[in-house]
Specification:
Order of helices and strands: EEEHEEHEHHHHEHEHEEH
CATH topology: Rossmann fold
Oligomer: single chain
Largest sheet: 6 strands, mixed
CATH architecture: 3-Layer(aba) Sandwich
Low-confidence stretches: none
CATH class: Alpha Beta
Shape: globular
Radius of gyration: 17 Å
Number of helices: 9
Structural class: alpha/beta
Helix content: 25-40%
Distance between the termini: 34 Å
Length: 237
């Protein structure tokens, strides 16, 4: 059952595509200001989980609640309006639009773009110099940073993040650790991320779970000195 102290509550969730069941009996919760990492190899259902929570896939069974409200029948647009941001694994930028336009599209009409961008600008110094540049001309790492900036500029209460470090250079990943930590400290943003990069996940998250063939097979806190070994034992099999 969802409580007032939980941003997200998932109970007995089952989801998939057509007759194919991908997720089986998923139970998890996310607290205010918490970062929770879902780890697992490719094809284990990590992206399916985020898409189901975001309303892009309708669950076959179980309950999903954001901020105490049942949302498993809601559309993705309605969930987004409820201060939930989603950074998808698929290319989600408008390549022919400028950096500024991509950021502006994330804001509801009437929102003060300058004030919102100023609040996050220190995290993304290169964006300040590229506002008039088309998004499609940015490097791969810069485009991913733009995706993160577009989520943060909305000032959401929770962000769902799908494999953001895939293909990133180590130096960019290190910068991203600081950005996500800083946003949580400044605004109390909660985050649910799916990842394969164990070092990144443990550097940012408070708790973790490992997904294997659609089921959670391991869970714990990132302060546990054995967390890395436990996670990698599943990823290396």
């Amino acid at each position: 059952m969802s409580t007032d102290t939980e941003i997200l509550n998932v109970q007995g969730l089952e989801s998939g595509y057509g007759a194919a069941m991908v997720l089986k009996d998923i139970n998890l919760s996310l607290r205010p200001g918490e970062v929770f990492a879902i780890l697992g190899k490719n094809g284990m259902g990590k992206s399916t989980l985020l898409k189901t929570l975001m309303g892009l896939i309708r669950p076959k069974k179980g309950g999903v609640s954001f901020f105490g409200e049942r949302t498993e029948s809601w559309s993705a647009d309605r969930i987004a309006r409820n201060q939930v941001a989603y950074i998808s694994q698929e290319q989600a930028l408008f390549q022919d639009l400028t950096v500024r336009d991509n950021l502006g599209l994330a804001l509801a009409r009437g929102k003060d773009f300058e004030a919102r961008f100023h609040a996050i600008a220190d995290h993304f110094p290169f964006l300040k110099e590229r506002m008039g540049q088309k998004a499609g001309t940015l490097s791969g790492g810069e485009q991913k940073m733009l995706l993160v900036a577009r989520a943060l500029i909305c000032r959401p209460r929770v962000i769902l993040i799908d494999e953001i470090t895939e293909g990133m250079q180590p130096s960019v990943i290190e910068r991203l650790v600081g950005i996500l930590r800083g946003d949580r400290e400044k605004f109390g943003t909660a985050m649910l991320m799916v990842e394969q990069n164990v070092h990144f996940a443990l550097a940012v998250a408070d708790r973790y779970a490992v997904l294997d063939l659609g089921r959670i097979v391991e869970a714990g806190t990132t302060t546990d000195v054995h967390a890395h070994a436990r996670i990698t034992s599943h990823l290396s099999v």
